[in-house]
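Q: Okay, next protein. This is mannosyl-glycoprotein endo-beta-N-acetylglucosaminidase from Brassica carinata. I've checked the sequence twice, so it should be correct. Can you predict the 3D structure?
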Amino acid sequence: MPKPNDAEAVPLLDLSKPSSPISFPIKSLQDLESRSYFDSFHFQFNRSTVPLRGDLPNNRPRVLVCHDMKGGYVDDKWVQGCENDAGYAIWHWYLMDVFVYFSHSLVTIPPPCWTNTAHRHGVKVLGTFITEWDEGKTTCNEMLATKESAQMYAERLAELATSLGFDGWLINIENEIDKEQVPNLMEFVSHLTKVLHLSTPGSLVIWYDSVTVHDHLKWQDHLNEKNKRFFDLCDGIFMNYTWKESYPKLSAEVAGDRKYDVYMGIDVFGRGSFGGGQWTVDTALDLLKRNNVSAAIFAPGWVYETAQPPNFHTAQNKECEVNWCTKIEEGFGETKKRESVPRNLSRTGLLRIGTGGRFGRERGQLRGATVW
């Protein structure tokens, strides 16, 4: 996955002292091991409050959407809202099964606004654990030094997800590792999956197609003998998004009964993706539909980041409803909307984007204030 153009916009604060509550990532193994996150003033504010409705369907392909928006933690880092009513939002939850919050920090924890909203619509939310390049290799050398260290860090990740109320992790090891550490990496993935399933029933651990069982960083773009052992240890695999036309069929054949656990990546920016991404994401979706595997749509914020005309809301509706909706509803089983929308949720509620007005009274008069 490419590096973001924008640095993470997380304020430099003493996280132990009271301030406006924020969401933030964990950037070092030391902070993960020490459990310092739980000593933060902000911890309690980052717990989701809405339980997940339902579970993943096991009788059809699924749709995973991977948020990659300007490096993460932009307007959404403000737990109690901010004054930007033109920030990025998603409101087509009825098209999704899994939502991944992504950044390039070591441990990306989803802000609770995403988890609460997704849970209302029956969508599971995953954080991201990522190591990259030279720094990532150093991190892996420490994390995978022993079987016990691999298990310990896996338990820390499971504890975070369970304590904060989100549903699991995307694991992305995008760096070379030492050959002798491959068994410990497998233990890390296996132990995380087992512990998380015990502490959070219905949770997910998904492996990103990156480092292989032969210790090389070489994206395979399809399920094969070089990445299947990781797939076998967890709940699914997110295939890199530069796959060729024949790869969905090959992946389905290798996965067998678990073909719906193969999520073929589609980059909305179009960086090497089949069909070109952007306004032609439906080309890739159509191929995945015909081969009966799941889809992983990466960086849907393309519409917002590139300021597609005439405005964000109109362009977002075009992207989702025109380019995705028909393919998803035709090819991914029964309409997701019928499965996920609560009976007491109106069409207005279905499309709510997570912003609104904050009001107060002044001398008996109701007055508008800032947005949330």
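A: Here is a summary of the prediction. DSSP finds twelve helices and eleven strands in the chain. Confidence is low (pLDDT under 50) at residues 2-8, 340-354, 356-364, 366-372.
Q: Noted. On to the next one.
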